[in-house]
Design goal:
alpha+beta; 142 residues; Alpha-Beta Plaits
Amino acid sequence: MTDRSRRDVILAATALAVGVTATGTRAAASTPASKASFPPVVHHVFFWLKNPDSKEDLAKLLAGLRTLADIDTVRGIHIGVPADTEQRGVVDGSYSASEILFFDDVEGQNAYQVHPIHKQFVADCEHLWERVVVYDAKAVAP
């Protein structure tokens, strides 16, 4: 699979995840998704741990990711690990953990990047990962 097609698949999965339900302190977890409820900006990050078999390292990373929900511009958060879904050529389950963050706009995402909680997360957890891939997507009109 090419990097371009993999990127397209991941962006499509991100769009699907946005339509399902965002979980977190500011998300309406019980409200059905509608076109109006889609967050305009989605920040999807994949992490590959240096020690992928370490349950302790994964627990530290997940705990660090949970702190990001306290950033005021984050409207919703979904933190996960690879699902035990059918393995197909388009499925990449090689990552250790992922986060999807939802923002009202690019300015909110930019503010998140420099927020002290985000900076602390990076300082506390960057020694755990060997690779990080980020996909930022903005909503398009139907």
